[in-house]
Amino acid sequence: MRTLLVLLLLSTELGGVFGPATADAVAVSSGEIEVTITVTVATRPVSVVAHLVDPGDDQQTVTLGHQGDGEYAGAAVTERADLVVVFEAIGADGSSELSRPVTLIELGVDPTIMLDDTSVIGGDDDGLTLDAATERWGWAAVALGAAALSLVAWWALADYPKRRGKVKAGPQE
After folding, report:
1. Residue 167 has pLDDT above 70, yes or no
2. Could you read off the pLDDT of 32-68 as tens digits, one per residue?
3. Under the phi-then-psi rule, with left for phi > 0, alpha for psi from -120 to 50, and beta for the rest, what region is 18?
4. In Å, how far from its chain's centre is CA 143?
5. What end-to-end distance do the CA atoms of the chain give, in Å?
6. What is the pTM assigned to this prediction?
7. In this structure, are 79 and 107 located in the same domain?
8. Average of pLDDT values for 18-36?
9. For residue 71, what are the CA distances in angstroms to 41, 102, 154?
10. In terms of residue numbers, what domain contains 78?
11. I need a labelling partner for 119 at 20 to 30 A (CA). Which of 55, 70, 92, 98 fits?
């Protein structure tokens, strides 16, 4: 019962013949995610597809398989982006009905999965890492800072023994 309530709260109504829809994603590489999309359709169409659209870029069409009780589901590997999803139900007579456009985040995908693994900074204990080039430049900056501090100390203390015994006298009359 609790699981059903959570699914209903996380689902998005699309209008028309489309009922609740959800999406989930898992990372498959540093630049890609696998998205699983589920939608409920009130009628019995011949086919249901999901159009994954990156505005200003390409579109990927995913065929959704019938899961029973009017539910259709499918999966696709895409880039890490909050793509726009439009569902299409195709009838036996060739007619089709489109849902309203929704984003993957609106369908329930965790927004943090959209981040590239190399774009975040943190310690090893929290699962976040730096890429090798950033780490190399970081150590170079630390070494340069230590060398600069050593030179300042040497410059400040280099003639200290010469000055130690001498006291500058004021103006003599």
Report:
1. no
2. 999 999 999 988 889 999 999 988 788 999 999 999 8
3. beta
4. 33
5. 102
6. 0.60
7. yes
8. 91
9. 6, 18, 76
10. 2-116
11. 55
